[in-house]
Design a protein that fits this description.
The structure holds two protein chains of two kinds.
Chain A: H1 3-8, H2 10-19, H3 24-41, H4 50-67, H5 73-80, H6 91-101, H7 108-119, H8 124-130, H9 135-148, H10 160-172, H11 181-195, H12 199-212, H13 215-218, H14 238-252, H15 259-272, H16 281-295, H17 298-312, H18 314-321, H19 331-341, H20 345-358, H21 362-379
Chain B: E1 2-11, H1 27-47, E2 50-55, E3 62-64, E4 73-75, E5 84-93, H2 96-107, E6 122-125
Antiparallel strand pairs in B: 1-5, 1-6, 2-5, 3-4
The chains are: A mainly alpha, B alpha+beta.
């Protein structure tokens, strides 16, 4: 059974239930139950019309739940008056669901969880594993999120920017158990792009595809990080790059630039270079200038300093770095890299070790420790650096359920 | 079954025998060390004894209540703090002896020169749920 196909039907089915008068929270529970039932029944007995099957089963579950609650008698009367199943596909419903699940009243972690469940059709257990929290905690987070948006009218127009931020978070953060969050984010963004014509939606989809294309090249067999410059570019997924570039070009032609398009443009320039040495760093810097203009983000300025270092030499990069706050994440790592390129190895080694201490994840920490070790091995001891810091490494949630 | 915590310290534990700072190792020695730790955890998952493993950033903040209506006071990190936890692995094993055996194995992770680091790990039993049968 194609689980992606099954889950892609989720928002449409949920939309139909809500249109028929079910409240969002109860409808969402009913759809979850129908999905679980489908996983159980379909392999033996595949339905002719999967979507109609889901609507029927979910609606029955919703009615059962409603009937079992006598306090909801009035709603039961309401739904009994509703027309029979057969409502057409809801493009608008899907879009409304994205808006609702990314509603500004939700915290980012709640919006992510609700989107993955109500739009993505993932189970609470899968989401809990992906974020390494107990299932009961995730269940509580989702039900609180549903309560938070319960008063929001389903037809209320939303802000696509909030939806994009949620999808970006799904792509960029998380641990992954049996669910590949990056794949899921791409699927959800693709589905969103199908129901709304917006250059930043296209920009985010292109950005995800272009980064996803490098995924196998990004880690060595032993799990260590491989930097962009050192990646084996033959491992890059050319189909994913081609699709990302094509989507980006159409979006850019509309001349409504946004931060995701600009980020995707930078990724596309890297994808376009046959070797790291052939990267068009001057253009990369120009895109970073656009990004600084669009976002004003200090993190963007930090990345820009690296690009300036490549385009105009390490001294220029260090000059671009100078006005930035040293407390910025990765500041020490960037400074270390620029000092190394400038030939100041003792400073670079010290800063790499400092960057390792500041790293927010073990992969980056171990990478920076190796960089420090590489330089120290070349020039010999000593340094005042600390104890071994390489362990322990958090384990991923075990696969399977 | 009993749960134990294997605690690794940035500082506060007695020095190991092969106590060379990690950035003075060769890159290959670092890779070998990380591989050893990963293999160790994978083996415990395999044997059904692994519970959890987490690493902590070296620097944190001390926080305390500062009275009604006031924001909490924050302070630190304190350079003089003796005990600094680097991370842990939680295991669920049949006996104290097994926990010691595993801690010993973890402490044998290779370091500088490819030799075991003989690092001191702190082994702490979890307090358990009260037993059902008490007499």
């Amino acid at each position: 059974m194609d689980e992606h196909l099954l889950r892609s039907l989720t928002p449409g089915v949920l939309g139909i239930l809500v249109r028929r008068g079910a409240d969002f929270s109860a409808a969402e529970d009913a759809v979850q139950e129908a999905l679980i039932e489908a996983v159980r029944v379909w392999p033996e007995d595949p339905p002719r019309d999967p979507r109609a099957w889901l609507v029927t089963v979910a609606w029955r579950r919703f009615l059962d739940a409603t009937r079992s609650d006598s306090a909801r008698r009035r709603r039961e009367d309401l739904v009994d008056d509703e027309p029979a199943p057969g409502v057409g596909p809801g493009v608008d419903d899907t879009l409304q669901l994205y808006f609702l699940c990314a509603h500004p009243s939700l915290t980012p972690s709640s919006a992510v969880a609700l989107t993955l469940r109500a739009v993505g059709g993932l189970t609470t257990r899968q989401i809990a594993r992906a974020y390494l929290v107990p299932e009961a905690t995730m269940a509580q987070r989702i039900s609180r999120a549903k309560r938070t948006v319960s008063g929001v009218a389903f037809d209320q127009p939303g802000d696509v920017a909030t939806v994009l931020r949620v999808l970006y978070l799904v792509f960029n953060e998380g641990y992954s158990g049996d669910v590949d969050l990056a794949d899921e984010a791409i699927r959800l963004t693709r589905q969103l792009a199908a129901v709304i014509d917006h250059p930043e939606v296209a920009g985010l989809l292109a950005l995800m595809l272009l980064h996803h294309a490098r995924r196998t090249a990004r880690t060595a067999p032993d799990g260590s990080l491989v930097t962009l410059a050192e990646q084996d570019r033959r491992l890059w997924d050319t189909a994913s790059i081609a699709e990302g570039v094509a989507i980006l070009q159409v979006a850019l032609a509309r001349d409504r630039l946004g931060e995701f398009q600009a980020q995707a443009a930078i990724a596309a320039l890297h994808a376009d270079a046959p070797t790291a040495g052939e990267t068009d760093w001057v253009q990369v810097v120009e895109w970073y200038d656009e990004l600084v203009r669009l976002t004003g983000s200090p993190v963007v300025r930090l990345n820009r300093a690296v690009a300036v270092g490549e385009a105009d030499g390490p001294r220029a990069g260090l000059a671009a770095l100078a006005p930035l706050d040293e407390a910025l994440p990765r500041h020490a790592a960037v400074a270390a890299y620029l000092h190394e390129r400038d030939g100041d190895l003792p400073t670079a080694a010290r800063l790499y070790a400092e960057g390792a201490r500041q790293a927010s994840n073990p992969a980056e920490r171990d990478h920076l420790t190796r960089q420090a070790a590489r330089l120290n091995a070349r020039r010999g001891p000593p340094s005042e650096a600390g104890r071994p810091v390489g362990t322990p490494t958090p384990r991923r949630a075990p696969p399977g359920s | 079954m009993a749960k134990y915590l294997l605690l690794k310290h940035y500082r506060g534990a007695p020095s190991g025998l092969n106590d060379v700072p990690m950035d003075q190792w060769t890159p290959q020695e670092i890779s070998d060390h990380i591989q050893y730790m990963n293999d160790f955890a994978a083996r415990l998952e395999e044997s059904g004894e692994y519970v959890d493993g987490q690493a902590l950033a070296p620097e944190g903040t001390f926080v305390r209540y500062d009275g009604e209506g006031r924001p909490p006071v924050t302070d630190g990190p304190f350079a003089e703090t003796k005990d600094l936890i680097a991370g842990w692995m939680a295991i669920d094993v049949d006996s104290y002896e097994r926990a010691v055996e595993l801690a010993g194995e973890l402490s044998a992770a290779p370091g500088a020169g490819g030799k075991p680091i003989h690092e001191w790990l702190e082994l702490r039993p979890f307090l358990t749920a009260p037993p059902t049968i008490t007499e």
